[in-house]
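Morning!

This is the sequence you dropped in the shared folder:
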Amino acid sequence: MRNTKQREAIIEVLKNGDHLSAEDIYSKVNETMKVDLSTVYRNLNIMYNNGKIVKVTTSDGVNKFCLSIRHHSHLICLKCNKIYEIPCCLSNELHEICNKMEFDDREHNINVYG
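The structure's back. Tokens below.
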């Protein structure tokens, strides 16, 4: 994946740790540079497919994005659609299970809806 000014701007917006919709990212990127909403969507898709960002879908069907980190877990409220990032307490257990099954556990993402 080639690094572009648009992708760098999207990464800068996501560095604050919030889970943002494409429209939110578009608004924030446009504070510093002019981009089209379609450009933001296209770049989010490329970045998601390359594992640079994580996509979380809320109960109302809105996709929210954040930077991809190892062992990423979320609690997602079905009432208010708030997304809480949590440290994954299952990492050691999952690692042990993967070792027993001779599986290379490079990364996992867990979303819990409730």
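Headline: The longest helix spans residues 37-49.

More detail when I'm at my desk.
O.
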